[in-house]
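pinned: reference chain
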Amino acid sequence: MFTNLSNTPETPQADEQSEPPPHLRPQNRWRRRIGRVGCAILLIPWFALMLTPCLVLTLAFQREITLTHSDLPHHAFRVWLIQERDAQGLAVVTSRRVEITTPEPLACVVYDVRFFLWGGDAEKRAQSLSIAASVSLAANQHGVPV
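pinned: its structure tokens
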């Protein structure tokens, strides 16, 4: 009843090369991959920016954030607020585990303490806080059998 009035056949011939759909073309595949990687790279700082108020509120209410690393005592990342009459600021303690191989294995924790002061006399107060922190932390540095 219906006839094909054009000169082109209805089905493609076997020797013709058909072009892949646009989303499967090589240049579009690379663009999509680059776009996904770029999106992931932008998401990481965005999440950090969105979590900043949560960290600030936690620090304001609890006065301290501690993330423990292992079963050793005081082996942790610690941030706390300094709110004294003579100084206001932030203190950050990072620690690392040092293992000693003697006849019996021992481990100790080495601390790195940093103070960021925005109120008070920074030089005088940082020196007294540093001495007090190093004395209290040195008291905690003792060998613990692993």
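why pinned: The two ends are 90 Å apart (CA to CA). The first helix runs from residue 26 to 62.
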